[in-house]
Amino acid sequence: MEMRTKLYPMVQFKKDTWEIDEFDCASMFLLIGSEKAMLIDCGMGIGDLAGAVRMITDKPLIVALTHNHPDHAGNARQFPEIWLNGKDRNLMPIPMSAELRRDDIRHIARRQKGSIGAPYSMFRLYPFDLETDVLEAEDSGPIPVVWDLKDGQEFDLGGGRIVRAIECPGHTPGEMVFLDQGTRTLFAGDAVNYNLGVGAVLLRTTLGHMKKLQAMDGEYDGIWNGHHDFRALGAPLGEDCLPTIIDMMEDAAAGHIVPCESPSFWGQDIPLTKQDKAKKMFGGLPGQEPSRRVTLRRGRNWLSIDPERI
Fold first, then answer.
1. Positive or negative, the Cα torsion across 279, 282, 285, 290?
2. Which among 182, 147, 175 has a CA at the least distance from the CA of 31?
């Protein structure tokens, strides 16, 4: 089935380094070396991402995922091979149901454009069609070959451009970040953000990995996460983001947990008495009952944690 749109907003923010915006759902990053190119994440699964990449480069393409959530792995079946940490392999199907993805996409469009109800249904706010651009799994291509992505693995794109994969569990068990050593750029997926949910492993384990990222700060000039909701397209996260996450996790590990009302993904607050609704956002692994979560706030940082997994 032919997918139509390739009209992703995109920006080249460093030499041969692109951020591709999947219509406010997620950010993908395209890195081009002298011999190969690398795509970090695939988005929710809107439109012809593979075709858009080919408009920029025809070099052999490596596709690597930061983690296996639908907004980062939804378009994986457009590509014959992907790299994914084995701890995330069975987290979710690739891709999940098209109707579930369409529902999330509708919510995101309403939130981002501030348009609910008739205005949203009357005017096309994005250059895609939910029925023809968001496909069922069987229509979007065969299941790709999934290669096991390892901590410390390096990808040589040619011309001295080497990208290193680094394990950073917390948001998922197999969350990975990628260090582009030549351009001094760290791609963090959902491992680092101002609105961060963790709990896939013990909080102290995640904290240790966050401190490792902080200790590497001499190797990168900025952190680009997998959503530009708290930053401009092509711009890095603020320098306060990672240190504040570490401070908040240290306080939580020491028992200083003060819950607050938190913004949901769709723009409404979650009252303290209804925090269980957040289970729908950050559930456990398939077959596991999500535990009660709390949200902490410091400055512009929001941190959702599982107090039973400190």
1. negative
2. 182
Distance CA 196, CA 191 (A): 7
CA nearest neighbour of 205 among 242, 240, 174: 174
For the chain, what are the domain ranges?
Answer: 10-99+136-238
How far, in Å, CA of 37 to CA of 258, rounded?
A: 45
CB under 8 Å to 170, separation ≥6 — which residues? Answer: 191, 198, 199, 200, 201, 203, 205, 206, 209, 210
Contact 252, 203 (CB under 8 A): yes
Calculate mean pLDDT across residues 71-90.
Answer: 96
The answer to whether 203 and 174 have CB atoms below 8 angstroms apart is: no
Output phi, psi for 149, to 5 deg: -85, 130
pTM for this entry: 0.90
pLDDT tens profile 114-126: 554 444 444 567 8
CATH number assigned to the domain covering 10-99+136-238: 3.60.15.10
Tell me how many degrees the CA angle 144-280-254 measures, rounded to the nearest 5: 105
Integer Cα distance of 173 and 184 in angstroms: 26
Give the pair of three-digit tokens for residue 99: 């109707």
pLDDT tens column, 251-300: 999 999 999 876 555 554 444 444 444 444 444 444 344 557 899 999 99
Percent of the chain with pLDDT over 70: 85
The share of the chain scoring above pLDDT 90, in percent, equals 72
- Whether 305 contacts 292, CB under 8 Å: no
